[in-house]
Structures are given as structure tokens and as C-alpha cells.
Automatic annotation (TrEMBL):
Record-linked PROSITE patterns: HTH_MERR_2
Protein name: MerR family transcriptional regulator
Residue ranges of domain HTH merR-type in the record: 7-72
Phosphoprotein recorded as keyword: no
Length: 291
């Protein structure tokens, strides 16, 4: 039997405000209808979506990830979202510990200096700049993150600038399959590798897809293994950004490159370019392992 619940009843039953429910609906997580009195009402499918949203928001899962769970209705996608959240928390914890160590070093220096003389603000700032720049490993630009294993659909193109050609069929299929809000896009060089300017090379583009989705015949399927990666946000100079990432990684005392896995470039849609010509932001991922 199909059951519908009015917004005031649902608010009372689940401890959610009407404003919260309207906000979640505006984010596209579910849809309501109206009864004869004009009240918003929610059918069984909407109620399930609301339950999923309420549970995942309690553990601070982002709306876009909640939407991917709702659209896939897949336990494996829920597990992947939770694993991503754990990885994010681990990274945040590592960053907090890093800042704590840096601040502790600064305070120890101040106590030592002030035992002999009073420091001016300018001298304090100079000491801080010197101290924070003195340890390239703790102040470098890369982050070590964990990517989960991902089932992906991919396409490979070869040319003097094959990136758009590689992406087009993947993006078209993802869009037509209503997976655009959930898919992560990754690219990378494949054989023949780039050599000289103007020489054709290979580039593969893939999109993460949930279990149960059939891949069309014009695309191929594989599983990216996931694992530890050194990550750097790329500037417009992608080649220069890769050199920066590898230079900082070469100075890292704990991690080194893992040549058994592919390096990746994550393409993140730039929906508000504000005059910028780039359609995507890029995050660069170099696979790493403990030394």
C-alpha cells in the first residue's frame, strides 16, 4: 500500500524542520507533491530518500555524495561514500597534527628568544617565516590521500591533443544516463606516451560508475585499484604542475612513487568560470607507497 505523509507530520516524526526538508528537496534529493489543502506530501520513495539523507547528514556526508547514494540505490556506493569520508577525516587529522607541530615549534622558539630579549612584531614575523619555510616536507604543496577502488567506463584517443576526443563519448554517455552529478572523471597518458611537441600520443579518460550500470559497447570497463596517492591542485600549466608534484615527492621522507599503478588527472567541472577559459579544474594524483 502506497503511503504518503504531510510535511508537518514528517517534521514531527523525524525531528526535521520544514525548512530543512524544503532545502533538501531544492538540492534535488527527492520530490514532494501537494495535497488538496496545499500541504507538501511525500510518497514512500521520497521517505526513503529523506531517511538516507538524514542519516548521512548526521555524519557530515556532502549533499553531492548523498545524491549519488540515492540515485544508485546501491549498498556498494554507500560503502564507497563512507570510505571516502574516513579518508577525508584521516587527512584532516594529519593536517591538524601538522599545524600543531608547526605552532609548537614557533612557541618554543619564542620562549627561547624571549629569555634573552624582547622581540618586536616584525622580528616575530621574520622568525615565523624562516621557521615555517625551513622544513619543505611539512610545508610542501602536496597531500597524500587515499582513493577507493572504482569501477570505471573509459575511452582512449590518440592524437596531437587527444584529451577532448577521449572525454567526449564518456561525458556524453554519463550525461545521457543521468550520472553526471555522481561520476568522478579521471584521465591519464597511455601509449604512445608524449615525446615531442606536435607528436601524437595517447590519452585515456574514464568516469567512475556505480555497480549495476551497464557500460555501452563503444566504451570499455575496468577497475581502478585505488590506494595512496600524492595529490596536487594543478595550475593552468599542467606540465609544470606535474614537475612541481614530482619534485616535492622526491623530497618526501615517508613516501615514494609507486610505478605499478597509473598516475591520474581528475577533471572537476568548472560550472562558474567567471571569464576563465578552463572548463575543468585538475587535481593531479601520483601513486605512492611507503619507502
Amino acid at each position: 500500500m502506497n503511503r504518503s505523509v504531510a510535511i508537518n507530520q514528517l517534521s514531527e516524526q523525524m525531528g526535521l524542520t520544514s525548512r530543512t526538508l524544503r532545502h533538501w528537496e531544492s538540492e534535488g534529493l527527492f520530490k514532494s507533491s501537494r495535497d488538496t489543502s496545499g500541504w507538501r506530501i511525500y510518497d514512500e520513495n521520497a521517505l526513503l530518500c529523506i531517511r538516507i539523507t538524514a542519516v548521512l547528514r548526521k555524519i557530515d556526508i556532502p549533499i553531492k555524495d548523498i545524491k549519488s547514494v540515492i540515485e544508485s540505490q546501491s549498498p556498494s556506493r554507500l560503502i564507497a561514500v563512507i570510505e571516502n569520508k574516513i579518508s577525508t577525516l584521516k587527512l584532516q587529522r594529519a593536517e591538524i597534527l601538522l599545524f600543531e607541530r608547526q605552532l609548537d615549534r614557533v612557541l618554543k622558539l619564542f620562549h627561547k628568544k624571549n629569555s634573552d630579549c624582547f622581540l618586536s612584531l616584525d622580528e616575530i614575523l621574520t622568525e615565523m617565516e624562516d621557521l615555517l619555510m625551513s622544513n619543505p616536507e611539512e610545508n610542501n604543496m602536496i597531500k597524500v590521500v587515499t582513493l577507493p577502488p572504482m569501477r570505471v567506463a573509459y575511452n582512449i584517443a590518440i592524437g596531437v591533443s587527444p584529451e577532448d576526443e577521449a572525454m567526449a563519448p564518456v561525458l556524453d554517455w554519463i550525461t545521457s544516463s543521468s550520472l553526471l552529478g555522481t561520476a568522478r572523471f579521471f584521465g591519464g597518458n597511455v601509449k604512445p606516451l608524449p615525446s615531442h611537441p606536435g607528436t601524437p600520443y595517447g590519452y585515456g579518460m574514464c568516469a567512475a560508475i556505480p555497480d549495476g550500470v551497464d557500460v555501452p559497447s563503444h566504451l570499455q570497463e575496468m577497475v581502478l585499484p585505488g590506494g595512496l596517492y600524492a595529490m596536487l591542485e594543478s595550475s593552468d600549466d599542467i606540465g609544470g604542475s606535474w614537475k612541481t608534484l614530482m619534485r616535492h615527492l622526491s623530497q618526501h621522507r615517508k613516501y615514494k612513487s609507486d610505478r605499478s599503478r597509473l598516475c591520474l588527472e581528475e577533471h572537476i567541472r568548472n560550472d562558474n568560470p567567471d571569464g576563465c577559459e578552463s572548463k575543468y579544474y585538475l587535481n593531479l594524483f601520483e601513486p605512492v607507497e611507503v619507502k
